[in-house]
Amino acid sequence: MPTTTLPIRDWGRTVYPTATARQQTQVQARIDGRIGDELIFTEHEPVYTVGLRAGAAAHLLWDPVELRTQGISVAETNRGGDITYHGPGQIVGYPIVDLSPVKDLHAYLRFLEEVMIQTVGGFGLVASRRDGLTGIWVETRKIAAIGVAVRRWVAYHGFALNVDPNLDHFAGIVPCGIASAEGSVTSLARELASPPSVDEVKVALAREFQAWWPSFLTPA
């Protein structure tokens, strides 16, 4: 499989609004042709982000007092999808990439899922898709979420893979609009006896993204 030298950036720990503003700067630079495709990693300070799906805000369960107690902020976002949680121990990936050679957002979502399926598989965990639902799952337990936005066919936002976040924080929302009867949330730390570190997973994600990206841009 061909690989690419697509740059990998690591922003470290970020506050969500700051990271969003930085993304917008990178998106404009990509549209203008001043930079090429790149993959950005970050871990956010605890935050619930509310996507564009109708009714997403209603899936916030904790009141302002509980949010302050838990140290979690709330931010509206222009990505697709419902409400989700970001926090330390969760790798957020922001690919700033030009989709104009393909112009297929559905295929791009499947690409991101495949990257994460291959990544967690490399650590011995079997994950898969579920019909009608985005993200990837270990049986009925969601381990990664996806939500993207596109401007002039440059994609941004991206994915969030749970390595070892505080899973109790997902109790404050209906994560991604998935009711408890339909599934729960999990992490590599919960599923594996000897889970990898965040840094090890970043290396694996970067490797898989770089390996699969050229074939996505030039499908057979």
Derived structural class: alpha/beta
Strand count, sense and barrel status of the largest sheet are:
8 strands, mixed
Order of helices and strands: EHEEHEEEHEEEEEHH
Quickly name the level 1 CATH class: Alpha Beta
Helicity, as a percent range = 25-40%
- Shape annotation: globular
Number of structurally distinct domains: 1
Q: Measured on Cα atoms, how large is the radius of gyration?
A: 16 Å
- Calculate the terminal CA-CA distance, rounded to whole Å: 13 Å
**Which topology does CATH recognise?**
BirA Bifunctional Protein, domain 2
The H-level CATH homologous superfamily, spelled out, is Bira Bifunctional Protein, Domain 2
**Mean pLDDT across all residues, rounded?**
91
Indicate the low-confidence ranges by residue numbers: none
Number of strands: 11
Helix tally equals: 5
Please give the CATH architecture: 2-Layer Sandwich
What fraction strand? 25-35%
How would you explain this protein's 3D organization?
29% of the residues lie in helices and 30% in strands. The protein is an alpha/beta fold. It has a single domain, classed as 2-Layer Sandwich (BirA Bifunctional Protein, domain 2). The strands form 2 sheets. Strands 1, 2, 6, 7, 8, 9, 10 and 11 form an 8-stranded mixed sheet that branches. The protein has a 3-stranded mixed sheet with strand order 4-3-5, with no helix packed on it. Helix 3 packs across helix 5. The radius of gyration is 16 Å and the shape is globular.
